[in-house]
Amino acid sequence: MWVLGINWKLHDSSAALIDGDGRIVALAEEERFIRLKHAPGRFPVNAARYCLATAGLTWRDLDAVAMGWDMRRFRTWEDAERADMYAELFGAEAAGEDGPEFVFVEHHLAHALSSFYASGFERAGVLVVDGSGELESASIYAGDRSSGLTLKRQWARGYSIGLMYEAASDLLGFGRFGAGKTMGLAPYGVGGDSTLIPMGDLIGDGTWQSKPPLDVPADVDSDVLVKEWKNYFSDHFGAVTATTEHLDKDPVAVRIAASAQRTVEEAYRAFHAETVYQAGTQEICLAGGVALNCVANGKLPEPVYVPPFPHDAGVSVGAAWSICPPKHKGVLESPYLGTDLSVAGQQLDDLRRAGFVVTEFSPDAVIELLLEGAIGSVAQGRAEIGPRALGHRSIVAIPHPADVRNRINTLKNREQWRPLAPVTLADYAPALWPGQGLRERYMVGSAVVSSHARKVMPAATHPVDGTTRPQVIVPGQAPVVESLLHGLRTAGVPPVLVNTSFNGRDEPVVDSSADAVRTFLGIGLDFMVLGDHLLRPGA
Question: What is the dihedral of CA 332, 338, 342, 343, to 10 degrees?
C-alpha cells in the first residue's frame, strides 16, 4: 500500500509518502525546491514528485492521496478541484476518474497524528495550537496506540494565540511568518517590561468562560483577527519606530515582543494542564505552529514530545498516517527524509577551475580550520524536514568567543541581536543545560544554560536571559557533525558547536548541492563540507 500525504497550498506545502507499514519513505517541503520560503500559494508539486521518485513509483501506484485539511468545513469544494489538483501534482492524465482515492483529514487531527505517532508514546495527550485550522485555534486529543486519537476539547479561532503572535510579528516588521524573530527579541524586555495580554478564558482567573479576548465573532476570519490584534498592540503599546536591525533598542518593540511571548507561555501552560487533565496522562505531544516556540516548550514539564515538523508541513505526514498508522512504535527514527544530496564530478571540477581547493573530507582538517576561528557549513546526506532539526544542512563554528555570533549574523545578513543555537554530544549536554528529554533531538525546547556553558559557548547563549535552543546529536544520524564534535574532544576542546541553518537571508534552508554551492559563495564562508568533500577558497 502507498499513501501520499499533502499539505494544502496556503503555506508550508509539503508531501509525505508512506508505505503499508506506515513507514515514511520520503518527506519534503516545497519551499526547498522552488527556493521561496514557506511556498505561499503553491501546491507541493516538486515535493510530491520527489517522494514518488524516491520510491520508484508513479501516481498510478498510489492507493490514496490524503490532504491535511478538510476544505469542505470552511469553503465550498467542487469535485472538479480534485481533478485540477491531481493534474497539477501529477500531470493532466491523472485528472481522470481512475486517479487514486482522495481523502480529507481535518487540519488539527492531521497535526495531532503527526506528533503522536512520531513520539513513541503508547498513550499521550496531544495538544495542537496554531493560527487556525478549519475553524479552530487549539485542540486537545487523547492518544492511544490501540484505539487512535479521541477529540477532547477545542477552542474557536477567536482565541488564537497563534494569530495574536503573528500580528505582533507583523507589526514588528518581521512579517506574519517571523515568529522566530519575535521570540528572539522578547528577552530584551526582561525585568518586568511586559504585560499579560488578555486572552479570555485561556489564562487569568481560570473561570473558563466562553468569550474570546477581542470583541469579534468566535469564527472570525484569520486576516481580520490579525488586523484587530495589530490595532490592539498599536493602541496599547504605541508605535514601533526603529528598523528591524535596531529593534532591541526600541522600548515599544521590545515590550510588544516580550508581552506576546509572555502571553503565549502563560496560555501554553494552561493548555498543557488541561491536556494532562483531559487525557489522564503526563505524557504530552505538541503540534501546530505554536509548537515551534521553543521558549514556551522549554518551560513545560517532562515528558514532552515535539516532532521536527510541528508546523503545517507536518500535516502531510499526519494525513497519510490517518489512513495507514505506523506499525513501528518507537520514536521517529530520523528527521533526515528530504532530498539526498549528490555531488557531480563536473561541479567539483568547475569549483577547482574557479580557484577553490577541493579535497576529500577529513575531520582533522576541518577541526584545524575551526580552531583557527573559521566559520563553515555542512551539506551532506538527505535534507532535514522542518526548521528545528539541523545537522545535514548546517553552518558551524566554535561558539567562543561571543563575537562569533556577530560574525555569523553579519555573514547571514541577520539582525545582530538575534541569538544562535548549539549542538553537542549526549554525554556532554548535562554540563551545558538541564536535560530536555526528547526535545533535545531537535531545537524545539529552550533551556537556561549552566555557568560552564556561558564560558564555553557564549556565541550560542542568548546574551540577555542566558538561554539556548539545544540540539543533541543522535549517534549515527549526522556523521559529519558528530565526527567534528568527537574530534574537538580529542583535541582537548569542549565538544560543542554553533549550529544554525545553512541559508541566506529570507531563503529556505539549502536543499541540493547547487543550492549549497550558491549559498556558500554568496555568504562568503571559510569552508564547506559538501558530501564527501571539503571546499576552501584558494590562496
Answer: -110
Task: Average the pLDDT over each of 112-116, 209-213, 369-373 and give the range with the smallest value.
Answer: 209-213
What are the catalytic residues? Answer: 11
C-alpha cell of residue 321: 498516517
Q: How much is the average pLDDT of 376-382?
A: 98
The size of the chain, in residues, is 539
Does the pTM of the predicted model rise above 0.85? yes
List for the chain the helix, strand, coil content (%; round to 5).
Answer: 40, 20, 40
Q: How far apart are CA 22 and CA 525, in angstroms?
A: 40
- d(CA 207, CA 157) in angstroms, rounded, equals 19
Show the CA angle centred on residue 424, arms to residues 127 and 282, nearest 5°.
25
Beta partners for residue 396, in sequence order:
376, 499
Q: Which of 17-31, 107-121, 211-225 has the lowest mean pLDDT?
A: 211-225
Please give the Cα distance from 32 to 177 (Å, whole number): 16
Would you state the pLDDT for residue 206?
42
The pLDDT, as a whole number, for residue 207 is: 43
Q: End-to-end CA distance of the chain, in Å?
A: 55
Instruction: Identify the three-state secondary structure at position 534.
Output: strand
Task: Tell me which residue of 114, 38, 102, 295 sits closest to 189, measured CA to CA.
Answer: 295
Q: Which residues contact 396 (CB under 8 A, 6 or more apart)?
A: 370, 375, 376, 377, 378, 423, 481, 484, 497, 498, 499
Q: Is the pLDDT of residue 202 over 70?
A: no
DSSP string, 279-320: HTSS-EEEESGGGG-HHHHHTSPSSEE--S--SGGGHHHHHH
Residues 6+ apart with CB under 8 A from 19: 1, 2, 25, 55, 324
Cis previous bond, 495, omega within 30: no
The C-alpha cell that represents 138 in the structure block: 487549539
Q: Three-state SS for 258?
A: helix
All cell numbers assigned to 186: 522578547
Using the predicted structure, report yes or no on whether residue 214 has a pLDDT greater than 90. Answer: no
Contacts of 156 (CB under 8 A, 6+ apart): 135, 136, 137, 212, 218, 219
User: Nine-digit cell at 225?
Assistant: 483577527
For residues 46 and 244, give the distance between their C-alpha atoms in angstroms, rounded to a whole number: 33
Please report where in the chains the cell 497535526 appears, as a residue.
111
**Reported confidence tier of residue 211, pLDDT bands at 50, 70, 90:** low
Residue 459 has pLDDT above 90, yes or no: yes
Q: Name the β-bridge partners of 530.
A: 379, 533
Cell matching residue 327: 506499525
Residue closest to 304 by CA, chosen among 440, 205, 477, 142: 440
Mean pLDDT of 109-124: 98
Share of the chain above pLDDT 70, in %: 97
User: CA angle at residue 524 from 520 to 530, to 5 degrees?
Assistant: 25
CA gap 512, 343 in Å, rounded: 9
For residue 376, list its beta bridge partners.
Answer: 396, 527
Set of cell numbers at residue 252: 515599544
